[in-house]
Amino acid sequence: MKVLVTGATGNTGRHVVDGLKDAGAAVRVLVRDPAKAPHGVEVVQGDITDPAAAAEGVDAVYLLWPFYTADGVETALESMKDKKIVYLSAMGAEDGGSSWGHVEKAVRNVTGDWTFLRVTGLATNTLGWVEQAETGTVRAPYGQAKRSLVHEKDVAEMAVKAFTEDHAGQTYLVTGPEALTQVRQAELIGHALGTPVRWEEQPIREAVEQLGAEFAAAALPYWASLVEDPEPVSLDVARVTGHPARPFEEWARERFS
Ligand SMILES: NC(=O)c1ccc[n+]([C@@H]2O[C@H](COP(=O)([O-])OP(=O)(O)OC[C@H]3O[C@@H](n4cnc5c(N)ncnc54)[C@H](OP(=O)(O)O)[C@@H]3O)[C@@H](O)[C@H]2O)c1
Question: Where are the transmembrane segments (predicted)?
């Protein structure tokens, strides 16, 4: 089997490449900058909005759509007709109206052989706090929001299983093993760094300025909702990979110890 991996320089894609190589699959990557491409794979330079050359002759695609909107996705997917597609989606696809929902629909329109990995949140999202954590204080909004952040290696393992076993037509909810408050996540980053970290609640107006209006408009109401209504914890990682999802603490230790 030959698999095209998009986002191969990113959080999950790099591990998907490694996992597929270990499984004996031939791997091609689509990258904007070949200097950043992983070693030992076929490299095609290009943009995900125009993947025809990269998709030529492959059997399967690990698909990222790294944009806020689904504009242009139908055109991009024309070159992936009837191929196996494993799409890194988000829990937000559930309601159908989000960009992830639109991308899922576009994928279903070009192939029956799809698997959707709907992530709640990646542990790597917290990397944005690390510089602050090193000073001893993380200042951010909604410290009591509870998130079930998932290790990027678990997402990648799910993807590799989707390519090497039969998971066609399956939608998985991909989460960590528990929902932790953001305050607790910051503390665990502190443990891994070897320095105590305290949380300072950031005023919303300041957060909007820092995050930018477009991202803040989507993210802040969602984080606010997670104070009363934590992100769900799914057993799909355990069911598909055969081991429990890696805890956030393990992710932090791997990154910072
Ligand atoms: N972060 C989360 O919590 C979360 C939750 C649910 C779903 N997701 C989905 O996961 C995706 C990946 O998120 P991430 O935060 O982990 O990012 P990431 O995979 O670490 O980074 C994005 C990747 O996409 C590549 N890329 C960006 N624009 C491209 C373009 N125009 N053409 C080709 N490649 C391009 C980047 O390559 P370069 O090296 O060229 O920049 C990089 O490899 C998101 O787009 C989102 O849809 C994320």
Answer: none
pTM over the 0.85 mark: yes
Q: Are residues 23 and 147 in the same domain?
A: no
Q: Is 242 in the pocket of ligand 1 (CB under 6 A)?
A: no
Domain that holds residue 92: 2-119
Judgement on whether residues 47 and 100 belong to the same structural domain of the protein: yes
Asked if residue 86 lies in contact with residue 63, where contact means CB atoms within 8 angstroms, the answer is yes
What is the DSSP secondary structure assignment for residue 246, as one 8-state letter?
A: P
Q: How far is the CA of 196 from the centre of ligand 1 (A)?
A: 31
145 and 115, same domain (yes or no): no
The radius of gyration of the chain's CA atoms, rounded to the nearest angstrom, is: 19
pLDDT tens profile 10-59: 999 999 999 999 999 999 999 999 999 999 999 999 999 999 999 999 99
Ligand 1 atom closest to the CA of 67, numbered from 1: 45
Q: Which two tokens stand for residue 249?
A: 């603490």
